[in-house]
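User: Please predict the structure of the protein below. I'd like the answer in structure-token form so I can feed it into my own downstream comparison script.

Assistant: Understood. Taking the following sequence of 748 residues as input:
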Amino acid sequence: MNTTTAVPAKRLQSTVLGYPRIGPNRELKRALEAHWSGRLDADGLEAAAASVRAGMLDDLAVLDTVPTGTFSLYDHVLDTVVAVDALASRHRRETALASYFAAARGDDAAVPLEMTKWFDTNYHYLVPEIGPGTAFNAKPDKAIAEFLEARERGLDARPVLLGPVSFLLLAKPDADAPADFRPLDRLGDLVEVYVEILTALGRAGAGLVQLDEPALCADRTPEELASVGAAYRRLVGAAALVVAGGYGPFGEALPVLLDAGAEGVALDLVRGRSDLEVIEALDVSRETSLFAGVVDGRNIWRADLAEAAADIERLQRISDRVGVASSSSLLHVPVDLDAETDLPAALTERLAFARQKLREITALADPDGPREARPAAPGAWRDEAVRARLDALEPDADRRVPYAERRAAQAGRVPLPLLPTTTIGSFPQTAELRNARAAHRRGLMIDADYGARMRAEVAAVIAEQERLGLDVLVHGEPERNDMVQYFAEQLTGFATTAAGWVQSYGSRCVRPPVLFGDVARTGPMTVEWTSYAQSLTEKPVKGMLTGPVTILAWSFVRDDQPLADTADQVALALREEVADLEAAGTAIIQVDEPALRELLPVRGAARGAYRDWATRAFRLVTAGVGPATAIHTHLCYSEFGEVIDAIAALDADVTSIEASRSKMEVLADLDRARYRSAVGPGVWDIHSPRVPAVGDMAEALRLAVAALGPERVWVNPDCGLKTRRYEEVRPSLANLVAAAGLVREQLV
């Protein structure tokens, strides 16, 4: 155990673990989409990418050491697949770039890699496919080139790679792997390839190398920790390594890494402050590099510099090599707060985007820098009426009629065929729609003209669905810019940004609202659009809402009260909307919770409490409806087996779930959990431009029917259609309807 020593007053090394890579104005997004559409060739794409990387380095130049290799054309896990030459044979094309995008997005010849959430964030990564026969080879060119770009600018560059342990723990067995195979079984082989990459970086002039091992922030078995120790004893011989977690505490992995000889560790002291006690109890050399991750890399609130300085001082009592860093990569926050000119001053002064976080880090690294505590939130952000209404709610939020009785009542109200077909909610957001919304927002289109334009789009979407033969329709959501921002703009306690973009995956960027105060509904938000759509058709039209957990997950949420309390406030507002939809005659109301798995804590000890409040909030929204009103929900791109009990606890009548990229593996999870409600396992991967064949979708449906029974299966895409083009949507939905009809005929 370390003894307390005087804290030296010296400048500390400043850095971050990663940086936003889309460009301050989403330059990378535009370049990617131009390339995919054929308007920009490979050289033009590389020029645009080089410009974005140069901008990143311009920003990072204020730091003492800068991370390199964190830029990606699509996903850093896919970059690692390429770096170790582990692309599946079905994705290998004539050029490296074509191979890369075949794995990311799929093409006419092959489906892409599965995509799922990156720990407890809204970032999606591509899941590597590893088998006993995967032939690893070192491909360090990207890492070396980006390191040299920074060195040529005179920067102290630190290459960053996803660590081999996390890479394999995030992977899945490939299609040829035996049932008892685990990707981690290949760790020894992969480590030798990493040794080659690290050696190549050393020859290029790299000193310290950062290996990201976020999987070590989760619970790990003794066997896995032993593998970590063995791997790092081999790796430290090839380079001086600092190991970063970034998504909670290292916990029991921390002494393993240090005992293996790691040069240092980067600690997440925002979500993993318990590591302070762990490292204080270890016999750590004063030559160990300790990066104090005291500036939040995942939220946009200003750091409490006084608290951060105190944590830094605790580490300085342990080591003479303490640095100041972000808690995680800044990938999860927007680039620049200075671009926001319309936020209230009282809010702006409490926020920090990526560039502002760089200033916080450099201030903390300076012994004479500011150390002020963050001021308390203004009292005006509290709404005592909201708090009183929540206090008055009955604790039992469950629907009191069992599912079997509800199902019968709903079938009597809305008769449907076996395998009813529907979509998740949104239809393509065309350029004309986006332009109309932008013109209305800028005051260039009057309310009456804007309303007429949106109603015309709703009418067109209803007509399109009737022509295709879908059974349950949606209004298409043309009026919604985003499934969270749309509601945030109509609820108190939220602010929306003009340029607060963050990457969700590939070219997909989102603009999370800022949830800063108590939440209340000011009036109906969706009833008019749903009722109008229903007036155009005899078929049922779903009311569409975003659930409370997803609204929290896809916002930057206040950190001055428990998430559970904030979720209940949002749920109460949505409960009022559900009541108004039901009163207007809406027979089916869908409350989407695609982020249910996303907020699941990385550590198992905290998961029970999360499941309790997350499912309670959903039931608070939905439990007031009558038995003949069907409640649907939707979840996507997650490891559903980890939250299957929470999905059951939502008590929805129909749950639509992403299943196409994961090859219907959710069916086994549902069976193990004895899940008894209806399910819509997605049969069309809408995140790929591929038009799925009738036969492929029919085969997926047969698997679902065999597992669940035909009376419990719905037919739908994996997700909303907002990002797709009508040229893809029309044939894909036609094939979906045809596949449902084919399987229905076979059931008769």
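That's the full token string. The mean pLDDT is 94.
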